[in-house]
């Protein structure tokens, strides 16, 4: 991936430092993450989204979902299997993971569910009344 030098933006833009930090963090996170586990991001409606992650082999108790400072983190820590096994081929990943998603302003997680090895995280963007467009009557 290309490296972007955001120094000029930090020097000359007032109040856009959060945007520059988001771009910087996104490029760093993309390099750090190895594509595991795979995920989809769906647009359900104008302000509703769903993230679906393929986490086959993980139990609900091994997955943690949290939001902090506009970042959604999904972490999986696989518990060691006490059963002695002798694999001829082991293609199912049993490693832990951490996936982070940068959330826009006013986006919050509404629900999380797991079925058939897929983790579904539902999100909604709730724009406050004060920020919604409104018509001004001319007197």
Provide structural commentary:
This protein is of the alpha+beta class and 139 residues long. It contains two helices and seven strands. The protein has two domains: 1-32, no CATH class; 37-130, Immunoglobulin-like (Sandwich), CATH 2.60.40. The chain has a four-stranded antiparallel β-sheet, with no helix packed on it. A three-stranded antiparallel β-sheet has the order 3-4-5. Strand 1 and strand 2 form a beta hairpin. The longest helix has 16 residues, at 17-32. The model has no long low-confidence stretch (mean pLDDT 83).
List the helices and strands and how they pair.
Layout: H1 7-12, H2 17-32, E1 39-45, E2 48-54, E3 63-68, E4 71-76, E5 97-102, E6 107-115, E7 118-125
Antiparallel strand pairs: 1-2, 2-7, 3-4, 4-5, 6-7
Main traits of this protein?
ACD_IbpA/B; Immunoglobulin-like; 139 residues; Heat-shock protein; alpha+beta; 2 domains; four-stranded antiparallel β-sheet; HSP20-like_chaperone; 16% helix; three-stranded antiparallel β-sheet
């Amino acid at each position: 991936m290309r490296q972007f030098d955001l120094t000029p933006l930090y020097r000359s833009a007032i109040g856009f430092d959060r945007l520059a930090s988001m771009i910087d963090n996104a490029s760093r996170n993309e390099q750090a993450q190895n594509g595991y586990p795979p995920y989809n991001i769906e647009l359900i409606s104008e302000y509703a989204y769903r993230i679906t992650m393929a986490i086959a082999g993980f139990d609900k108790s091994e997955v943690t979902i949290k939001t902090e400072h506009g970042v959604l983190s999904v972490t999986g820590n696989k518990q060691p299997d006490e059963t002695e096994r002798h694999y001829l081929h082991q293609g199912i990943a049993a490693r832990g993971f951490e996936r982070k998603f940068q959330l826009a302003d006013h986006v919050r997680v509404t629900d999380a569910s797991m079925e058939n090895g897929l983790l579904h995280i539902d999100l909604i963007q709730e724009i406050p009344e004060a920020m919604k467009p409104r018509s001004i009557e001319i007197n």
